[in-house]
């Protein structure tokens, strides 16, 4: 009996250690923002068939003000990957002309909570790489949803799913590549 109690206690203590390691002090999954890890994260997600084929293979050498935000998600929590960069106005226009014709949905500014609640809305993303803590894209951004897949169950639309795309601000020559799963 004492042996079983001791093993049970060890399981609770050991399990709580692993759960604490998976979360930051706020209780949220850790978010990677180190741009030197871009290729490592990209390769990891590609090997898991994450929908990121629209992301650049490497950060372009002419890109400026590069920021990333990556959360692998834990347990049943969602995951996301986002990279934001400034490029030449010509390159941004080229990327916009590449993705705009194939976008399944388009939004102007905002965030996923706003976009999903619009008529024919779908989940998108928050502005994880933005300057503000609000996590919404300013109205100058065109959010182009390249695809969104609902894997929820009847009565729980979008309970599980994924979406990916680009957000482009022509006025500041910025592009944000994003992908999310939940």
Distance between the termini: 42 Å
Strand order, biggest sheet?
1-2-6-5-4-3
Shape descriptor reads: globular
Topology as a string of helices (H) and strands (E): HHEEHEHEEE
Profile the largest sheet: 6 strands, antiparallel
Tally of extended strands? 6
Characterise this structure.
The protein is built from 4 helices and 6 strands; from the N terminus they run ααββαβαβββ. The chain is α+β, with helices and mostly antiparallel strands and 182 residues long. A 6-stranded antiparallel sheet has the order 1-2-6-5-4-3. Strand 5 and strand 6 (174-181) form a beta hairpin. The longest helix has 21 residues, at 2-22. The N and C termini lie far apart (42 Å).
How would you concisely characterize the structure shown here?
This protein has 182 residues and is α+β, with helices and mostly antiparallel strands. Helices cover 26% and strands 29% of the residues. The protein has four helices and six strands; from the N terminus they run ααββαβαβββ.
